[in-house]
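To: structure subgroup
Subject: Chain for Friday's discussion

All,

I'm putting the inputs and outputs inline so they're searchable in the archive.
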Amino acid sequence: MPPSYLKDFREYELDLILPLIPVKAKLLEIGAGAGWQARKLAEHGFDLRAIDIEESIYRGIQVWPVTSYDGRHIPFPDSFFDVIFSSNVLEHIPHVDQFQVEIQRVLKPQGLAIFILPSATWRFWTFILYYVARLQQIINFFYSQTCSKADSDNNNIEKTNSVGLRGILERLFPPRHGALGNTMSELYLFSRFRWLTCFRKSGWIVDRYFSAGLFYTGYSFLGPHLPIHYRHFLSFMLGSTCLIYVLKRA
């Protein structure tokens, strides 16, 4: 399960899309994880189905029934759902362009697809916070070694210093978040321009897209210590972490 403050972010985003979903809609969540977002949506009266890949780290701890699938073929018939939803999932699918065809297959002709996706803003600020986290690790490492030097064997200290510091230095460049590219190319891959190009190229009609109006990053920028209303305010100055795309079949 995600930390409670991250659940607060996701619930805030869910509240933004609830008015877009028809009453008693048949809804599919792709990449449902532990299923707590699916459960939240079901509480609003939607006929909810949820799927995630077999390798999901949440297998066995789901709070809602989540069907496993192969990541390519959605296990439901054609034109089955009124709405298809995912939250911070599409960026993790390497064949995301081709997968749009499969999503459209199971969506009714007049249905909606609603995708919440991290923005280039999230990628930029997470990049910055990565180095803040690494600097803190290095400071903590040297501080702990200095404190233990007085009562430890010098040879063991030198070996620990070598292994520990090397491990920190080997992670100087932040890892990518999604399935494609690298940290720098994700500034484009997570951009509004890239996603709009992907969706239109795949045959979607982009009904609308809008900011989720929250600022948060990877590496837990102030974690639970910065309330939602402050994060909403920061999104006007620093950018919104996520964008919400609402699509229709052509």
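Points worth raising on Friday:
The first strand starts at residue 26 and ends at 30.
Residues 120-148 form the longest helix (29 residues).

D.
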